[in-house]
């Protein structure tokens, strides 16, 4: 009985503040919806984020809330406006999102991925670079590259990523106009001839894991060619991009030698997409402290996180800061949590949480969990 009374009180309080918008299309979002949550269709969410893209803590929360709701925030709107105003005949513009830990960079990227999907972009999405290079399971599959001496392949990881690419772009890959421009010979008996659908190249990498890394190289080349020839628009999104520039990875060769990021074949493939030597596309990356070792997290600014090599690769780029919640966003989020019964207690508790969390989205979510 007491529990039911608390539930009704929380819901009544949350209803006094507008925290939702019925506009579910990112391309239609504007400043009137800043701070409001919009729901992402379950099937679409599964298509875009089944293999990564949402922070694990947030993904767990969506199961508890039985919905995926993303807040409309200013950085996402700024980026969408920039993309809409871009000249796609010119070299791609690189955007770098940065901010404190837990400020919402990954969710802003998720908002942009939804926008890219609705606008018909071919999506090239790396959910988290450190999954390849730093969060290494004990028995990670690794092999010496057969085509590039001195490099190592991560065939299982790349095959899994190709499946992610296929799932996100399942509609576009049915387009038979997206064809490859070269012959690719994998072995004496296996080849992919010029004029084959792009989907055939992707399928080969998934089914023949041995060649997955070489398929990724070919896929990157073909995507750039298709974009240049205006066959498709491409949206490149890489979370934790600065992880490619760590001095060392947690990978080891059979001789116990530590592997550098540039010695992993997939690093070169994805860095090719971050260059501005192609057109008809967009490149959005995040620079995140969590993508680096603990001893290199003193600042969240791009120049520090990207190291010299990464900064020079992306320069010039457009920096987009993702900050803490504004007062309006905090109030909206608190109301949403009350509606989902994630936050309970008297209204005065929000003032205390605002102080203890410093309006950091992740800290606020974590502090509400036991309440």
UniProtKB/TrEMBL annotation:
Record localization: Mitochondrion
Pfam family for this entry, one: DAP3
InterPro entries linked to this entry: Ribosomal_mS29 (IPR019368), Ribosomal_mS29_met (IPR008092)
Swiss-Prot/TrEMBL keywords: Mitochondrion, Ribonucleoprotein, Ribosomal protein, Transit peptide
Principal location: mitochondrion
Biological processes per GO annotation: apoptotic process
Coiled coil: none
GO cellular component terms, semicolon-separated: mitochondrial small ribosomal subunit
Keyword Nucleus: no
PANTHER family listed in its UniProt record: MITOCHONDRIAL 28S RIBOSOMAL PROTEIN S29, SMALL RIBOSOMAL SUBUNIT PROTEIN MS29
Protein family according to the UniProt entry: Belongs to the mitochondrion-specific ribosomal protein mS29 family.
Protein's name according to its UniProt entry: Small ribosomal subunit protein mS29
Organism per entry: Galleria mellonella
């Amino acid at each position: 009985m007491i529990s039911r009374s608390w539930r009704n009180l929380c819901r009544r309080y949350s209803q006094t503040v507008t925290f939702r918008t019925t506009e579910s299309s990112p391309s239609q979002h504007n400043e009137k919806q800043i701070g409001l949550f919009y729901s992402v269709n379950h099937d679409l969410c599964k298509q875009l984020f089944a293999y990564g893209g949402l922070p694990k803590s947030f993904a767990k929360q969506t199961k508890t809330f039985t919905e995926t709701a993303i807040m409309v925030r200013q950085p996402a709107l700024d980026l969408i406006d920039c993309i809409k105003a871009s000249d796609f005949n010119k070299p791609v513009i690189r955007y770098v999102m940065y901010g404190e830990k837990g400020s919402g960079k990954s969710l802003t990227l998720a908002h942009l991925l939804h926008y890219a999907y609705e606008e018909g972009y071919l999506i090239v999405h790396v959910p988290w670079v450190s999954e390849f290079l730093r969060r290494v399971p004990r028995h990670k599959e690794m092999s010496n590259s057969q085509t590039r001496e001195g490099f190592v392949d991560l065939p299982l990881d790349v095959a899994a990523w190709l499946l992610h690419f296929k799932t996100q772009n399942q509609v576009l890959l049915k387009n038979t106009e997206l064809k490859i421009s070269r012959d690719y010979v994998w072995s004496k008996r296996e080849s992919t001839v010029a004029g084959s659908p792009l989907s055939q190249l992707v399928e080969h990498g998934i089914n023949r894991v041995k060649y997955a890394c070489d398929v990724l190289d070919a896929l990157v080349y073909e995507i750039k060619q298709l974009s240049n020839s205006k066959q498709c628009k491409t949206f490149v999104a890489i979370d934790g991009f600065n992880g490619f520039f760590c001095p060392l990875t947690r990978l080891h060769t059979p001789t116990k030698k530590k592997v550098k990021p540039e010695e992993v074949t997939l690093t070169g493939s994805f860095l090719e997409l971050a260059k501005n030597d192609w057109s008809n596309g967009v490149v959005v990356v995040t620079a995140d402290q969590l993508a680096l070792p603990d001893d290199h997290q003193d600042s969240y600014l791009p120049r520090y996180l990207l190291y010299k090599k990464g900064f020079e690769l992306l320069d010039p780029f457009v920096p987009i800061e993702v900050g803490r919640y504004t007062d309006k966003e905090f109030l909206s989020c608190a109301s949403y949590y009350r509606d989902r019964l994630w936050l309970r207690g008297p209204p005065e508790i929000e003032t205390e949480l605002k102080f203890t969390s410093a309006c950091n989205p992740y800290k606020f979510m974590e502090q509400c969990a036991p309440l």
